[in-house]
Structure formats: C-alpha cells, structure tokens
Amino acid sequence: MKNILFIASESVPFMKTGGLADVVGSLPKLFDKKYFDVRVIMPRYMCMRQEHKDMMEYLTHFYLDFNYQSRYVGVLQCKYQGVQFYFIDNESYFGGGAPYGNIREDIEKFIFFDKAALSALPLIGFKPDIVHCHDWQTGLVPVYLKDTFRAGEFYRDIKSIITIHNLKFQGTWDVKTIQTIAGLPDYYFTPDRLEAYKDANLLKGGIVFADAITTVSDTYAEEIKTGFYGEGLDGLLRARAHDLRGIVNGIDYDEYDPSKDKFLPHKYNARTFRKEKIKNKRALQEEMGLDVDDSKFMIGIVSRLTDQKGFDLIAYIMDELCQEDVQIVVLGTGEERYENMFRHFDWKYNNKVAANIYYSEALSHKIYGACDAFLMPSLFEPCGLSQLMSLRYGTVPIVRETGGLKDTVQPYNEYEGTGTGFSFTNYNAHEMLATIRYAKRIFNERKREWNKIIDRGMAVDFSWKTSAAKYTEMYDWLCP
Ligand code: ADP
Ligand code: GLC
Predict the structure, then answer these.
(1) Ligand 2 atom closest to residue 381's alpha carbon, by position in its atom list
(2) Which ligand is nearest to the CA of 252?
(3) What is the pLDDT of residue 148?
(4) H helix or E strand, kind and range, residue 39
C-alpha cells in the first residue's frame, strides 16, 4: 500500500478558479484503493460556500513558528466521494474574498500553507510515501522536504513530485522577503536553486528539488523546454528533462456526462445526440435572447478571460465574424479588457453575441451541451479541459495547435474522413477565422459529415483511466 498526498491550492468541489481544481478533485478517486491511499490537503478559505464548510469537521490544531510569529493552524477534514480531504485553517491568511489576490500576500499565504501542511502530517497520522505538489503555490514543499523537515525521522523518506499546470505563474518576489518568510538559509538563494533573474522563485524551487516533474500534456512538456513557452525556466527544464514527463489530463466522466447532466434540460448520448442535443441549443438560444434558429452556427466559449486563451485573436476578427450567420455565447471572467470587449460586442451585435461575464457551473454545462462548436484559440495551453468537455458533449472544438489542444483534438480531414475537431497552427487571427469559416461550411453544407465528426469526438475516451495508470506507474517507479 502506498500513501500519496496531493497538496494544492484548489480542488473541486470546495474551491475552483480553473482546471487545476478539476484535476485535483477528480484524479485521486481513480487510483486503485487496494494499492493506493490518495488524500488531498488544501487551504480552508473563508470564501468557500457554506455548504462546503458545513461538510468539514475539526480534527486538530497547533501553533507554527512562521515569519517570527507563532501562528494558529487548524486542521479540518472531510470525506468526499471516497477521498479523504484535509483543510488548513488560518483566518488571517485564508480570510480574503477570493483564493488569490495580491501576489505579495499570496506568496506569504502559500509559503505558510506549505509549511503548515507538512507540519500537520504527524498530527493527522498520515505519512505519505509521496507528496504530489501542484503549481507554484506548493513549490516550497519539495524544498522543505530536502531541508527543514529532513531532520525529522517522519519526513526523511518522503518523495516529492511537482506537476506544472501553468508555467506562467511562478510565485516570484525579491529574495530578501521570500527568504525571511520561508526561513531558509542563504544556500537556497542562488541561481541554481531558488533564485531566478535576481528574484526568488517558488516554482523554480519546486522544479529544482522535486524528485520528479510532470506537466499536463506531452506537447507542453516539449514546449516548455523552448524559449517561447519556457517563461524563463526553459534552461532549467532542459537540464531536468530526464525527470520531466507529460501526462495528459482527463475529466471526471461522472460529472461531465450529457446522459445524466442535471444542468441540461435535454439529456443525450452518442446515439441520441442528433435528435436531442438540438433541443438544448434551442433552450439556450431562448435563455440568451438569441434567435431561436437551428441553422445558426452556435459557437461557445467558457474560459478565464486572460491573454493565455487567445482573446486578442478573437477581438481582432469579431466584427468580421459577426457579419456571418453565427451566434457566439461567452461565459467567463478575468481581465477587464476582455470582459469589456465581449460586453461591447454583445451590445453591438445583440442578436448574435451573448456575453455572460460571471462564473456559473450551470451555464458552463449548458454551453457544452448546446453549442455546435467550441472555440479555444489559446496562445499556450498546458492541457485544457474545456475542449475535452466539449468532445464529451458532442460540441466540436476549434482550437489552436498548442500544448494539450494539439494532443487531444484531431483535426478534421475531409478526404480521409477522420478527425474530431478543427485546428490551426499559427497565432494569427485570420488563420483562426478561416478555420471557423471552414467548420461552419461543413456544418451548413455537409451535415452528415459534421455529425460524423461528433460521433468520433464522443467516442474518444478522455476519462482519467489512461492517465491515472501513468501516474500509478510513476508512483511505483519513485517508490518501488
Ligand atoms: P484553465 O485551467 O487554464 O482555466 P482549463 O480548460 O483547464 O483551463 O479548465 C477550465 C475549467 O474552468 C473548465 O472546467 C471550465 O469549464 C471552467 N470555467 C472557466 N471559466 C468558467 C466560468 N466563468 N464559469 C464556469 N466555469 C468556468
Ligand atoms: C492550468 C492550464 C490548463 C490545464 C489546467 C489543469 O490552469 O492553464 O491548460 O488544463 O491547469 O491542468
């Protein structure tokens, strides 16, 4: 039996700002319970929904010496869908209105979380063989395991893995501040350890000190070793290439299942989508105040509104695209310029564009379940889950060939009758527009072909099965 601890800043259902939460909340369920005990530890944010806070029960508390003060650390627990979750509680660190905010404060809060989570383990009575860290927020865990905590018998043999979900965010601040907060000796703050371009970098610490590194698709694992995608850490990732591998994400096939999705007015499956899915389209057109018309090519977007996702391309061709017979339904929040861009086009093309600038699980499911196509022209995309959800719901993805998008969407080939979506190569707005037009032409003029693209997309398996087996293999390799 191997004990694995996921340590992360978010997880469904308790807190979610993006795909990281989907991964942390759905992957642990998939391991064979005969061989693995996989648990999750995350912060208890005050801004969590009350129903989730009510699910937690107090386990223990202690005081941690941190940044020259003695700090309260509460530990709560709950079992959710068979997985044991622990929550680190401290109101002054996790009391804000959102899990992330000001980066300086976030850095201190997550260093606290890393130290508190490791310190809590003996009290919880769970000794992991492997701690599996996720993103910069947990970057100091591998460092602490090699340093401060190594002295303790309990921690000595614990191995660590860090999974990079997004290399863009690294948790950097000046060396002095981070060194003081972390309480680590000078030794760690050199360019071959935590220092990067004169600052201290938490993700870099994780990458340098973890026993293994993964990222969430094969293509992204290659891309981040290059200057364009490497975010300044490509040299380090090349140096650690031997310990770095890509394992593509899956999605939770129970949560995302069009045949029993509670948010969909009309359920369907791979056999019935031809008749049933269109009813969801009509319902969404009505709900969004768009023309109720089967023949309109309805494109969905569900996304954090950041430049990662290719919104500059969309902004550039929106006027042109809206001259056509299309409908665009957007759900997302993020950078103000993109929020306003979509609000503007909603105002300008009111019967064609529906901008929903908020977060809604219900509407996201309705979009996956109703639209004809899903647009995701990312500048970079470590994996991307939305295109997997689209495939599962028979909504044809239109993507740029980068990262996980390239690995999971097979471009349509009309001569061979293959492919599950549409894709383009360059980060170029008119290349994207041409691809959207091509997709629309197949949709309008060759409906049977279009439906076969859906058939193939719905037949591909992006449940966690295959990827969980790869993580299993890696855990076995690290701890034979
Ligand atoms: P990222 O993690 O980079 O944001 P992913 O495609 O991996 O991108 O995951 C995004 C997840 O967040 C998906 O589950 C998507 O449905 C969800 N999501 C993004 N924005 C919203 C929103 N405004 N409302 C509901 N769900 C959203
Ligand atoms: C990140 C990436 C996204 C990935 C998700 C889960 O947020 O931007 O591509 O799917 O993490 O791994």
Answers:
(1) 9
(2) 1
(3) 84
(4) strand 36-43
